[in-house]
Structures are given as C-alpha cells and as structure tokens.
C-alpha cells in the first residue's frame, strides 16, 4: 500500500496565549511512500516526526493537506478505520493481561463482518507472536519479560490486525544498546517478510540509515532531503543534512574560494571549478582525508586512536568550526604520523561546499 502525503501541514496554537506564537510542527510535507518500503523519518527532537506519524495514523488532524492510502483519501477517516498498526516508544502493554491477551486485544472489538471466532483470534495471535519470536512466552505477564521482549509484544499487537501501514515512533529508545541493534534487525526482517509499508521514526541517524529503504530528514517541521540512505550521505543538499548524518560526524571548516581554488587558511586544498569567489563552509567526511607528507592541508596533530583496521587521527586547524578534525585512515599509512604536523590531500567527492549564509550546497 503506497502512502501519499500531500501538502501535509500541522499548526499548533500557542500553549501560552499571551506569547501568541503558534508552532508550525509540520510544514507542507509532500512525499509518496512507495508500497512495501520502510521509510526512516529522521531529525532532531522537536522537528515534527511524531506529529507527521500521528497525522498518518489519524490520531492528529492536519491543519492542511491530505493523506492517501493507495488511492483512498483517508484524511477524514478515523484511526480505527485506517488499517494501521502503531508502536510507541513506551510499550504500553496491559500489565494484568498475559502476552497472548495483550496481542489479541485489538481483535476483541472487531464488529460485524470483521468479527472473529475465538479460535481465529488465537490463531492470529499465535502467528503474530511467531513473527516476532515470542510464541514461547504467551502465558507470561509483561512484568516477567525483558524490555526487548515487551517491545516485541507491542509489535505483535500492532501486526495482529494485519495493518496496511505500520507506524513506529522511536520504538527502540527504551532498549539498551545491544538489544537496540538486535531489535532493529528484527523489525527490518519482519517488515520484509510481511511487505507492510512502514514508517519508522527516530532521532538516531545510524538507526535510520541501517534499516531504511529511504530516509526523510526533517528540521523545524520542514523536510530537508529524501533519498536512499547512501545517496543522502554522499550528496547532502545543505549543511544541516551533512552534519546530521555520519559517525564520526563530518568535519566543518571555514574556507574561501579564490580563482576556482578552495583555500583553508593559507593552504590551497582543492580545485573547485565553476565556483565564484566567496567565503564558504567546507564539510569534509572523515574518510575524505589522505595522509601525504606533501599534502595540501596542514593540521596540528593531537592524537591517534587505533581501532583495528582503521585509525582515527585527531588534529586541529584554526579554520575548523568543530573543535577537532577527525579523519579515518587505513592503519597501513600511519608511518607518516610523526612530528607535530599532519598533512592531508582531500578526496574531492568527500568534500562539500556550503554557502556561508544560506548553508545550501554549492556544487563543483
Ligand atoms: P519530534 O517527534 O520530531 O520530536 P513533535 O512532532 O513531537 O517532534 O513536535 C514538533 C513540534 O510541535 C515541537 O515544537 C512541539 O513542541 C510541538 N508540539 C507537538 N505537539 C504539540 C501539541 N499538542 N501542542 C502544541 N505544540 C505541540
Ligand atoms: Mg517524537
């Protein structure tokens, strides 16, 4: 089921009437989510991710714009009748019910032609439980489960009605690091097995990058960029997106373009054909540095962190906006790292220029 968001907008009235400023939580969101894909909705806290998800679910009504499931306009359809499954950050299971009763709960209120027999309900619950691999735990109470198991119950409960669209709001935030990793792989597997169109909200770029077919990066209610994770990483449209994606994060320096050459301090570090003379932000991915004793960019060496195959070199440069410059180089090359200065050549496809005021990308 494809999901179409058309000029989707949500404005909240001011909480404080006197201050009088309304909040545009989501501003003119347009996107056609392809059938059967997993979309990662990504951005810092407060950028409008949950509000977008709640509008898709019907829990919140858009101020403007429309939502389609397939060809059906569902903008005015109630949550119960949209055919969605919802999973929140806090699992919100019923503590007095068993796992089985929790999973079956959404089937209890089906009416008319949708009404199921007791056996059908049990079968459906068992299938959903199998999908998330908790079918051995059906008789337990939530308090007898780990956080990861509780979240699986919540996912099974969202799947039991066989939703057309699965909506997940930061579903892994309450899990510890190892479980988070494992559960995100599980969610990906379940999503692929069921083929349900899924929107996965997170503020964690690595999480979104690792499991999404496409990511949507938001800032202050406005969509910044939509694309495959690797494409967005390799080709950010502005400084915000460049900084938001990647671990370690992109290095940002002030630079100046003069005569189609990029200068960082006094060093001419790269040819930038077609770019007019101006001050720019320079973003350099950590993997964009090549150690070279005659390299164009000179930095003050701080320390070297060996991480097995790769080495992280920490250095400083007066033009850097970020406190340090962190490069990732192959451990074979660290022989060159002696003395107080480290010199680099830059890989052009790992260097991005951004307008000093608008922070929009400048292509070269
Ligand atoms: P996210 O999920 O990305 O952290 P939200 O969608 O929850 O962000 O919120 C987006 C913006 O809308 C925030 O500025 C938030 O304070 C505001 N907001 C969310 N819900 C309400 C509400 N019910 N009333 C007023 N403002 C709200
Ligand atoms: Mg949220």
Overview of this protein structure:
Strand 20 and strand 21 (361-362) form a beta hairpin. The protein has eight helices and 21 strands. The protein has a six-stranded mixed sheet with strand order 6-7-8-3-9-10, sandwiched between helices. Helix 2 (99-108) crosses helix 3 (118-131) and helix 2 packs parallel to helix 4 (147-159). The chain folds into two domains: 3-243, P-loop containing nucleotide triphosphate hydrolases (Rossmann fold), CATH 3.40.50; 248-362, no CATH class. The protein is elongated. The protein has 364 residues and is α+β, with helices and mostly antiparallel strands. The structure holds adenosine-5'-diphosphate (ADP) and magnesium ion. Adenosine-5'-diphosphate (ADP) is lined by residues 12, 15, 23, 25, 43, 45-51.
Give the topology.
Layout lengths: L2 E10 L10 E11 L4 E5 L6 H9 L6 E6 L2 E2 L10 E4 L11 H10 L9 H14 L15 H13 L5 E5 L7 H18 L2 E6 L2 H7 L2 E6 L2 E6 L1 H6 L4 H6 L6 E8 L2 E4 L2 E5 L6 E7 L4 E3 L5 E11 L2 E7 L8 E6 L10 E6 L4 E5 L5 E2 L2
Parallel strand pairs: 3-8, 3-9, 6-7, 7-8
Antiparallel strand pairs: 1-2, 1-4, 4-5, 9-10, 11-12, 11-14, 12-13, 14-20, 15-19, 16-17, 16-19, 17-18, 20-21
Helix pairs in contact: 2-3, 2-4, 3-4
The chain binds adenosine-5'-diphosphate and magnesium ion.
């Amino acid at each position: 089921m494809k999901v179409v968001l058309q000029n989707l907008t949500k404005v909240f009235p001011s909480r404080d009437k006197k201050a009088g400023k309304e909040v545009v939580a989501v501003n003119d969101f347009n996107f056609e989510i392809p059938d059967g894909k997993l979309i990662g909705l990504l951005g810092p806290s407060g950028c409008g991710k949950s509000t977008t998800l709640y509008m898709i679910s019907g829990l919140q009504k858009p101020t403007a714009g429309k939502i389609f499931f397939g060809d059906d306009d569902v903008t005015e359809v109630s949550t119960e009748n949209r055919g969605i499954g919802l999973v929140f950050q806090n699992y919100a299971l019923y503590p007095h019910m068993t796992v089985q009763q929790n999973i079956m709960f959404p089937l209890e209120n089906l009416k008319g032609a949708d009404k199921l027999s007791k056996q059908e309900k049990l079968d459906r619950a068992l299938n959903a439980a199998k999908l998330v691999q908790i079918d051995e735990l059906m008789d337990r109470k939530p308090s007898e489960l780990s956080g990861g198991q509780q979240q699986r119950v919540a996912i099974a409960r969202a799947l039991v009605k066989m939703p057309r669209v699965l909506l997940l709001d930061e579903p892994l935030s309450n899990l510890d690091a190892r479980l988070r990793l494992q559960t995100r792989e599980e969610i990906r597997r379940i999503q692929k097995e069921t083929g349900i169109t899924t929107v996965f909200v997170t503020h964690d770029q690595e999480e979104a990058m690792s499991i999404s077919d496409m990511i949507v990066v938001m800032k202050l209610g406005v969509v910044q960029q939509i694309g495959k994770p690797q494409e967005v990483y390799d080709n950010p449209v502005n400084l915000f997106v460049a900084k938001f994606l990647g671990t370690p994060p992109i290095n940002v320096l002030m630079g100046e373009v003069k005569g189609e050459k990029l200068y960082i301090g006094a060093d001419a570090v790269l040819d930038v054909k077609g770019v007019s003379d101006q001050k720019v932000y320079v973003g350099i991915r950590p993997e964009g540095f090549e150690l070279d004793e005659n390299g164009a960019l000179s930095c003050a060496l701080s320390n070297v962190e060996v991480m097995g195959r790769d080495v992280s070199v920490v250095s400083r440069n007066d033009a850097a906006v970020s406190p340090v410059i962190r490069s990732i180089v192959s451990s074979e090359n660290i022989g060159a790292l002696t003395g107080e200065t480290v010199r680099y050549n830059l890989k052009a496809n790992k260097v991005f220029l951004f307008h000093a005021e608008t922070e929009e990308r400048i292509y070269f």
